Amino acid sequence: QASGRLPARMAHAVLPEEFAGPDEACRGGHEERAERVRSRSRAQTKVTQATFASRFPTKTQIRDWATLLLGARFLRHMAQVVGGLTEKRMFKASQDYTPDQLTASIYQEEAVAPQSRSRILRVDEIISMEELEFGEGVPPGLFRFVTDPRAAAVDVLKIAAALLSCCLFPVTFIFGGPWADPGPPSTRLVFALDALTDPAYLCGLLLTLNVSFYHPAAHVEVVRRRRILLRNLRDVFWWIALLSCTCSLWILLGAPAVLSNVKLVRFRELLYLPDSLWRWRDRSCVVFLRLVVLLLLASNWVACILFYLGGYREAYLKDGEARFRTQFEGQPINGELSLWLEAFVEAIYLLVGCLDNPLGDGGVRENHFGSLLVVAILGPAGLVVSSMFVSAVIQQQQLSSALSRKHLKNKAFMTHALTILNIPKPLQHRVLSQHYYQKLGHDKEAFDALFNKNNLSPALEVALLVYLHRDTVCSSRYFLGKDPNYVIEVLRVLVFEVFLPGDYVARKGEIANTMYFISKGRLSILVPNHEPRLSTQVSMAQAIKVLERGHHFGEVALLDDCVRTAWVRAESYALLSQLARDDIEPIWKYFPQEKDELHRLVLDV
Predict the structure, then answer these.
(1) pTM, whole model, 2 decimals?
(2) What is its membrane topology (predicted)?
(3) Distance between CA atoms of residues 357 and 366, nearest Å
């Protein structure tokens, strides 16, 4: 080229790239390499001048140089294409990875509950069975209360029969007559219905001898038939309950109807739920309903006792049914029902300790010894019943409102502190706004109780974390498809942070050492103004993007010391998962390749 015998275009075409001119080397952007290229170019210029001064290159030499140059470029191009395809395949493979695969590495659902309809895993393993001797197994045909639905059916049969019987049998003796002369015609109908409950209750009582039971002291399920039989046959109340099934027969044979009070032992079936229904014992609806039913049934029995012994029966037989009739919307109500209802109201007040006329002045109980006797005996019992009823109601109310009371307590302390510190009202409102959001939208107290180490196994804790972060961390391009152990360790160190509308999650110029994943809410990215004097004013910043659930930002802060280059502002109540550099660096000691991969991905972005 220097001698003028080779055009410049051809010189650049045939010479290797490292011998390109200094201007082209400078365009590479590396000063050191450019200096080396200049030195080589000057030396090559002298060589070229000497070479072309002696002779012109042959066509074969030019063709060989061109083939070599084009082949090298072709190979570089193919390497880039193959690398791009490999990267795309790797990214596609990572996209195929789902949080469910991560959950599958924590526990295997099919193995713990195969074909089970129960909401509790392996119920038969929750309550251990008593140790049996070598070669001894569970007796064939035994109803195990833990897993066998037939045991629950037996107990439900007993409860239903006892409930219906406790409603009916008190009414059969209010007039005290035998089956031949029971009183009003309705009494005989009630007696017949009550007699039908006896066979059902008897069946349940006998089948109980074939149902295992829970030993409260040993905390095991007893399955030996001998122990089951001894437990029931040694129980006096079991024999009384068995005897109560014959009361209707004795009354039919001429015994007084008051004998049916033996069935009072059936109230025991309603005091406590049986072992087969243990999962229903702690439900608040069951507790409240059981208390109300027991109070109403006990009031029914006390009302019938008052009717029989407290003067109502004598007044009815003396004055007749018409004297006690009442009116409801202009319609007459039967005197028997009206008189029984009057006794029922007095019985309720007696059992809850609120009877304001214990002597019955001005009523049918006035100057009646039987009435005084019933009130004297059941009055103190009513105080006990009322205290038990009220304590049970208060206990359930405290349990249902425990979290609310804790929030109210925290709010009272916060309000008092804000007042003492003389915090301005607008700032107080923001503090209380965050309190209400955490109470209603993200209950930190409840989450702390849930993730208490004493309440969860490590596998359950991780499974819950995977579910909570399935659309954020687990689906992030930085963690999707990674080693499950690495992702789990990252999930363990995440911290939930709550931000109010208008809060700056990140500020330009602040020291950055955390990465954020958005679980709830919307955030805006604000870039500074191009003019240097306005670059630090957030009011002049421009919003360029809105981040929502599943987005993340701040990943550069995990790799090196840096400062934020933009503002990130919460546009709504936001719940973010914070990942700090101090928390992830100990994890990278065991997974160094993940840090390198994150560094490469950040550089690509």
Answers:
(1) 0.63
(2) Multi-pass membrane protein
(3) 10
